[in-house]
Every structure is written in structure tokens, then in C-alpha cells.
Amino acid sequence: MINLKNSIAALMLLLSTAVFAETAQEAAIKRLVEPRLGEGVKVDSVTKTPYAGLFEVRIGTDILYTDEKAQYLFVGSVIDAQTSTDYTKARVADLNKIKFSDLPLDAAVKMVKGNGKRVVAIFEDPNCGYCKRFRQTLQGVDNITVYTFMYNILAEDSAVKSKNVWCSSDKSKAWDDWMLNGKAAPVAAASCSTPNDKVFALGRKLGVTGTPTIFFTDGTRMPGAVDVKTFEAKLASLK
């Protein structure tokens, strides 16, 4: 029996390493494709895939496909008809991976529940309704450490609310008071400094376009207010 998980991992390794040994054919396709994508668009790599004779065209973390003569461009997901495996989704997830240990955790609000052995980092905006919903979900999750980066992207007063939380004597309690109960933190002193700008720059660098966005210790991310079953299943897969 084929181990599907191992097969996908092998495929991702093949694609991620192939760009370092671009063939003459891949280079030729890159030269043909790039001018057809619009002025200023830069193709980072062209890689032959193991399926359907397609070539992966990567632009940042965006993926499209072409044929060996670069006559056609295909936009969408490559899905295995037998296993329903979405190879494109898996590839994009791999491209979006981060190095969790590089996150500046000192710029995040830390919450520990139970033994705290399971660790995640979350980008949240204080005005984000979906973030508040996910905070409710976290209420039912134990043995976890959550680092919350207050990522102010939704409203003009998001930075003010984040500053008030950051400058509170108990940051974690102040954040939960606001996100769970709508209880605002005391107004911060003007002299209190925050990591707001640092977190905003970090989120942009990591390509965080919405909140909440959850990062796991394996470097993968999960956007949106996922349900507890999905969240727990992901955490269990990291063991």
C-alpha cells in the first residue's frame, strides 16, 4: 500500500529542490512564459512536475501551469482523481512555510494553558470578529501555549486597542477580556512603547493577508476561525 503522506512529502521535496537544477527546457519555458504574464511580472522558477506533463510556473507563492511548448497556461488546482489529493494546495502550503523559531515571540502576547507543550502563534486584530470567534474555540483547548501577534490591519483604532493591551500589567488577561468579553483595557500612557510597527512589518513579510492566521511549529499556517476538531487534528499531527 502506498503511503500517501510520504508520497506527497516526496513530491514536495522534488519540486522544492528541482529549481536549483533548472534544465535547459525549463529555462526555455521560463523565457517564453514570462513576457506573456504581463509587464513587470517575474517568474521565479519553472519546474517539470511528475503529473500530466505539466510544468509548474511559480511567481512568489502563486502557482500556475503550462505545457512543454508554453502554448497554454492553466490556472487552478491539480487534484488526484483517485485520492482527491490537491497537489497544488500542498505545494502552496509548502511554499508558505516559515521557520517558527525565527518568530520574534517577545513581540507577542503569551498565554499558557495546562502544561503548555503544544505551541502556536496567531496573528489577530482586536477588531476582528473571526478572531473573537476563534478565541472562544481556544477556550476549549488545553495544554497549549499561544503567542498572539496583535496585527493591526482592520481599523484605525486597532493600533490603539493593541497598545492598551500591550501596556496592561497582565497582557494575556487584557487581550482575553477584550476579545471574549468586550472589556476594554485601560488607556495606556503615552510613554508606553509597543511592538505594533514591528508586528505589522512581520505580518507583511510573512504574507499574512487576513486574521486570524495561525502558525504551527512545523512552519505551516492555517487561516480563518477553524473549528476545534480541525485545530486539534492539526496539533495531533505534529507529534
Question: In short, what is this structure?
Answer:
The protein is of the alpha+beta class.
- CATH level-4 homologous superfamily of the largest domain: Glutaredoxin
Uncertain regions spanning at least 5 consecutive residues: 16-20
CATH architecture of the largest domain: 3-Layer(aba) Sandwich
Give the termini separation.
23 Å
Q: How would you write the strand order of the largest sheet? A: 5-7-6-8-9
Arithmetic mean pLDDT: 90
As for the number of domains, it is 2
CATH T-level topology of the largest domain: Glutaredoxin
Count helical runs: 8
For the largest beta-sheet, the strand count, sense and barrel status come to: 5 strands, mixed
Account of the 3D structure:
The protein has 239 residues and is an alpha+beta fold. The protein folds into two domains: 4-95, Nuclear Transport Factor 2, Chain: A; 100-237, Glutaredoxin, CATH 3.40.30. 35% of the residues lie in helices and 18% in strands. It contains eight helices and nine strands. The chain has helices at residues 4-18, 24-33, 87-95, 129-138, 158-166, 171-181, 196-205, 228-237; strands at 45-48, 55-59, 62-66, 73-74, 109-113, 118-124, 144-150, 213-216, 221-223. The strands form two sheets. A five-stranded mixed sheet has the order 5-7-6-8-9. Strand 1 and strand 2 form a beta hairpin. Helix 1 (4-18) crosses helix 3. It is elongated and about 65 Å long. The chain starts with a helix and ends with a helix. Mean pLDDT is 90; it is low at 16-20. Pfam families: DsbC_N (PF10411), Thioredoxin_2 (PF13098). This is Thiol:disulfide interchange protein.
